[in-house]
Amino acid sequence: MADTIKLSVNGVEVEVQAGKNLVDAVAAVGIEIPHICYHPALGADGNCRMCLVEIEDGRPPLVPACKTRAVEGMKVRLDSEKIKKIQRDIMEFELINHPIDCPICDQAGECILQDYYMKYDGAQSRMRVPQVVKGKKIDFGAGVVHDQERCVLCARCVRFTRLITKTGELGIVNRTDQARVNIFPGRPLSNRYSLNVVDLCPVGAMTSSDFRFKQRAWFLTKSKGICHGCSKGCNIFIDHNREKYQDDIIYRYRPRHNEQVNGYFICDAGRMTYKQENEKRLRTPLASGQQADLESAINALKRRLDQAANPFFVVSPNCSLEQMHAIQQLAAQKKATVSGFSEGYIQEGDGDDWLIQDDKAANRAAFAVLGIDETKEVFNSALKGADLVVNFGNDLSLSGVNNTSLGTAEMAFIGSYANSCADAAAYLVPVASYSEDSGSIINVDGVLQRYETAVKKNVPFPNMLSVIRQLGGGLDDVQAARTSLGNTVEAFKKLDLQNIPAQGLALTASEVGNVTA
Amino acid sequence: MEVKVLSAKFDIEGANKLEIAKEHGAYATLDKLFAMEPAAVTEVVKASGLRGRGGAGFPTGLKWTFLPKGLDKPVYLAVNSDESEPATFKDRYILVRDPHMLIEGIIICCYAINSHDAYIYIRGEYTSQVKVLQAAIDEAYAAGYLGEKVAGHDFRIDVTVHRGAGAYICGEETALLESIEGKKGQPRSKPPFPAIEGLYGCPTIINNVQSIASLPFILANGADAYKAFGTEKSPGTHLFGISGLVQKPGMYELPLGLPVLEVIDKVAGGVREGRKLKGIIPGGSSTPVLTPEEAQDATLDYESLAAHKTMFGSGGIVVLDDTVDMVKLAENLVHFYYHESCGQCTPCREGLGWMLKILEQLIAGKGKVADIDLLLELCDNIEMKTVCVLSAACTMSLRSYLIKFRSEFEAYAAKNASAEPVM
Fold first, then answer.
1. Is residue A301 part of a domain?
2. Are the C-beta atoms of A176 and B349 separated by less than 8 Å?
3. Partner B contacted by A92 (CB < 8 A)
4. pLDDT at A509
């Protein structure tokens, strides 16, 4: 535990962490100092002036809280008439030239101006002169559309491109109330994290061309999730909604703060993987190449598996720990070789030194922990003798395995997304994807994380664990799988897999086995 | 009333040239300077009571002592020559007529604060002035007064002239530093103050041209000689730029502490024939206006003008006579500050434009009396809520116009037939 200091806020003594600015220090004990331009990842800029607080006996007596370090014995006043008036005044200045087009603004419902107006302002407009006219729907590139009139010039987006991505595409041009955020002519946003400016924007000035006008924020259910776009396992919000007469659909991913994994941000590519959860899904079960209902397909596959002389299981590096464990158990029972061969998921050189990883699979680290072989040699030799290949979601075409190279073996595919392996399958069981399921994964840095079911389809896909159970597996559900993992896997024996902390559990080097992070 | 301290060489033809300037004493203090300890130089400046001539009037010598001791970072000197305050035109005389006095002052200051790199941040519009200044610097380099060994002593000083791009805000010392660093000229939050963390993150002293140019006289003649001019708390002389509706507008060097009205009458020749004095803006556009009644016992020094709820400012005196329309003057003033707001802080960025539009509406005959009260409230709402004092410079002046000449504003409101009658 870090050092703490005592200071007084509105005459009440509070104990806060030392070394923080006033906004963060007192936020930790539940006291809000309103602020617009300050963001913990971007540092204090001090331009919005919303966080001005009084320091009793202070010099100067009025300071921006974001730029003021909390120190022992400080007497902070937020509740004086003077401060309340300043907050009202700042809101008035923010709003006089704001279009107040909330009914057509994507940010409505999660807008700092709306929230602060209700909390700190509430006054009628006194503006009787024409508003400043600025640019609307300006294409900033990378799927970011900018509205200069809604902008409060907090410069969060500008600071993001300067301090975080260091690409500097954005700047504030002009002075006075003609100041506006803009790109340089012909130089649009072109970094792989551009869409974070949409999340950072406290108002509706930065919108995503992918999301804009699709949903009202207040209709969205904001579920916690883990991005499966690469092996980083960034924490996300899965924003989804079931419209009347429609199915539950995901409309966007947004970053969810986790200091241990992704900080405040996610990459654009990962953000867009939500589309795969809605589209490109496997829907029609197959039994012996014929369309079938789910039960018949699973039963047919079970019969085929029972008869197989030499079954071979292929597992996807996107499967959860629980799924992999159940697959291993079933394989042991059926005397099947298990291979996690999936080198095609790795895009050499695509990663960077921040969030984006070469490995586009979410849980490859689990292979080493569970002892699942992923070499091409084992895959090829096992394939040679196999008469039935049961593929658990692994898109082998990525790894250069086309359907003819699979030889005479019959194919079964248990997965969520359409691909050529699924096309070639005689037995096909569509299952819930990660956004509809619960599980645990280990990221590239050895952080074990849990995700829970976010989306509930009108007609839910069965989860893979239940399908494995119907095929003869012995694990009832994720809880049973976790208990079994804890009992049988060396690395997990000392861990409580049922209670992984929200920020994830950093496994030690010995726990993640021979994985090099 | 006029004195010749800073302006001693102003009327000498060719004094901007090194040869002629030297004939009249330029660089004569350097031997004395390098024989002194740097701290002793600072002590002399402190003892002289010289106050910052940029407008704020902070004691120059005291400012130098704020530099951290024993730091292994370089110390920079930035000479503020961004003279952009409306009605202020004193530094340009130094730049053009006696640039070597400025360079000599820079050498004195650099030696005192142990700085080897000085920047002169010159207003972008001073296109001809910058040529004269640069030519003088080139001459000083050629003659060995600047460069590796200043006047043969083991002390390096390099002077770089940095031209602004036409922003008033770059006269604010931290915006000036940002601009030198190649960034958009926007003031920094303080603390940290520039003396601790200034140019390129290093300790930096920022002094006005006239402050620096006062140093050769002080060093040559001693603190007491300088204090012989002016008042006890506002010692020395000042270059006053008197403009507006007077008979003899111009730049006059005067000791501080002279009565305002006497200066206007005797130095600047008074208001024009048949006109009546209406108001005095004592120190540049950002200082609140004085009515003739208020000015009766006001003297041109920091204390007296502060006591009259205005400021000494930059010595740019604007004289207003009875033909001046205070509402249009207010509009002109607000337009300037609106246009020059850097756009960083919310109250200044949004508020000044709003105030300008209200004034424009009032002048167009579409205003109301309530607008005058709204303007007064907006002055309060904007003032001192921002990183720098640009907005306060506007609101303090505007408030003085609104309060002291309210009837003129109400007269405009009365032109609006649709509004409520003026009570």
1. yes
2. yes
3. yes
4. 75
For the structural domain made of B237-321, what CATH number should be given? 3.10.20.600
Domain that holds residue A131: 95-208
Q: Chain A: nearest CA to B137, how far in angstroms? A: 33
In this prediction the ipTM stands at 0.94
User: Quick one: DSSP state of residue B17?
Assistant: S
Fold of B326-414: de novo design (two linked rop proteins) (1.20.1440)
Question: What's the CATH code of the domain at A69?
Answer: 3.10.20.740
Report the C-alpha gap between A227 and A500 in whole angstroms.
17
Would you say residue A467 has pLDDT above 90? yes
Query: In chain B, which residue's Cα lies nearest the Cα of A89?
Result: B381
- Quote the mean pLDDT of chain B: 96
When pLDDT is cut at 50, 70 and 90, the band that residue A513 belongs to is low
Q: H or E stretch including B16?
A: none
Cis peptide leading into residue B192 (ω within 30°):
yes
Q: Which CATH class is domain B18-227?
A: alpha beta
State the Cα–Cα distance between residues B131 and A23, nearest whole angstrom: 49
| Residues of B contacting chain A (CB within 8 angstroms) | 167, 169, 184, 189, 338-347, 349-354, 357-358, 360-361, 371, 374, 381-382, 384-387
Chain B residues touching A153 at Cβ < 8 A = 343-344, 346, 349
* Token digits of residue A225: 């999730």
pLDDT given for residue A69 in this prediction = 94
Cβ within 8 Å of residue A227, ≥6 positions away: A233, A234, A235, A236, A253, A266, A270, A271, A273, A362
Q: Please name which of B345, B348, B347, B372 lies closest in space to residue B358, comparing C-alpha atoms.
A: B372
Task: Say whether B347 and A49 touch across the interface (CB within 8 A).
Answer: yes
Per-residue tokens: A472: 């003869």
Domain ranges in chain B are: 18-227, 237-321, 326-414
Banded model confidence at residue A144, pLDDT cuts 50, 70, 90: very high
Q: Can you tell me the distance from the alpha carbon of B4 to that of A32, in angstroms, rounded to the nearest whole number?
A: 60
Q: In the prediction, which pLDDT does A358 show?
A: 97
- The confidence band for A465, taking pLDDT boundaries of 50, 70 and 90, is very high
> Which residues in chain B are contacts of A71 at CB distance < 8 A?
none
